[in-house]
Amino acid sequence: MKKKSTVFIGILGILLGLLWLFPFYMIVSNSFKTPKGIFASVLSLPNPFTSANYGASFKALHFMSSLTNSLIITICSVLLLILCSSMGAYALQRNHSKLSGALLMVFISAMLIPFQSVMIPLTANFGSVHFLNMYGLMFMYVGFDCSLSIFLYQGTLSSIPIAMDEAAELEGANRWQIYTKVILPMLSPMTVTVAILNIIAIWNDYLLPSLVLPQAQYTIPLQMFNFFGEYTKQWHLALAGITLSIIPVILFYLFAQKWIIKGVTDGAVK
Amino acid sequence: MKNRSLSFWLFLTPTLVALALVVFIPMLEGLLYSFTDWDGLSFTKMVGFKNYTALLTDKTFINAFWFTLAFVIVTVILLNVIGLGLALLVTQKFKGSNLLRTIFFMPNMIGGLILGFIWQFIFTQGFTALGTALHWSWLNGWLTNAKTGFWGLVIVTVWQMSGYIMIIYIAYLQNIPQEVIEAAEIDGASAWQRFTKITFPMIAPAFTVCMFLTLSNGFKIYDQNLSLTNGGPYQSTQMLAMNIVNTAYNSGNFAAAEAKAMIFFIIVAAISLIQVFYNRKREVDL
């Protein structure tokens, strides 16, 4: 009885796993085919095998430049977010007044506002002061994503005893030193969570950067969208482009899986 | 830190300034503009509720609303059933369960835009090839009408988000004390009884979390919509978020777009507030 159900679960698992992997198989295998090869058989393995699509789409996607832009924007925005929101959460959590309670509510209530409700005036305002570029974008990410980050940090901060602050104060540390030398290191598990959640969201974001970035600063999703407009009928190139653009994400996932799962769980459950 | 201390305000300045400039000021401006004839740059007069009443006869908006609502209902059900199913599957002890977790969650790492492109290929090329090989005509012509476009979007979303929902259910499933289940097993409870009488009630909080998560995500979907169908054919698969973007940036009706954006805000905020209220109530009940 026990044995039979284990076998059944195993088979079900394998089938579902294959079903989930099927789209990846489709894009990767077809990205190594010639246009004729795709037309002849979409489902089979590449025959004849060609890697020429990759060279062509690497160029057409301006892959090095869009990868660099994606990296700069994601890393800088996430570092800024970590710094600003941990500072904000620290100030709010260590101040037990009505004011800090009210400010926390302000941050939390901002989470109710969907992006589409603010995007038009937001981009108009930033445009009028010539801030529609990657620096403006980084600032916007701090504004949009600080609420959740502050909320997460604030929960962790309440478990760090205030005696830690006081001990450091007695030794002559000022507020900034207490924050950087004592508090920030103790927050690092939550910092990993905040970083993971925002890295995934910012790396994959399309709509906001598409309204903000000039062409020279295009990230991978933006470049991908442009590229698709030109190559929809040339699937061999488009699929090589897709494969190229998901390689960094899959590598990051396989490398940081443990933290990603923890971060995603924390972000959703708290 | 004291209210009046300089450090309190210095620590809060960066986030407060960003939040004001990026979220609250544009939100208030948008609210104001929704009552004017704003053209994206300036406005000449207040028009009262005209932009709002015009929505009632805006067929693309109404259509986008019902389309989105249907999409949300279907995906909330499917995502929770499949997400919980996957969670139950991978928490069984068998070889390769960790590998399966990795696989199920993987699509969630890829952005909605690229996911949409991946599935566009599968629906238009892969389905057609499969349909021809198996003589299944229903596999042909996907994404060319509203019906297959709808199910296409559902499939993409389910493929993407099931793994995410699975992760949340796993977190709750792992909190169930193993002794309780073993005790029930010794008492002769069947697998089905153990599930309905122990597992199910103990992961009830996960339902609330996942329900609202899938609800509000469903309403806000844009990228998948853009890259999979781009709202076509003839705007029949356009969802609310896309309708707002297109009203502003394709049609140039900025004031109308703002009115839509405010309605959109009310829907999304209401879902979140109901969740907060519901959670409070549950905590009181406990």
Automatic annotation (TrEMBL), chain A:
GO terms for cellular component: plasma membrane. The chain crosses the membrane at residues 7-28, 71-92, 99-120, 132-153, 182-203, 235-256. Residues 67-256 form the ABC transmembrane type-1 domain. PROSITE patterns: ABC_TM1. CDD domains: TM_PBP2. Its main location: membrane. The keyword 4Fe-4S does not apply. InterPro entries: MetI-like, MetI-like_sf. It is found in: Cell membrane. Pfam families: BPD_transp_1. GO terms for biological process: transmembrane transport. Coiled coil: none annotated. Keywords: Cell membrane, Membrane, Transmembrane, Transmembrane helix, Transport. It is a multi-pass membrane protein. Belongs to the binding-protein-dependent transport system permease family. This is Binding--dependent transport system inner membrane component family protein. It comes from Lactobacillus selangorensis.
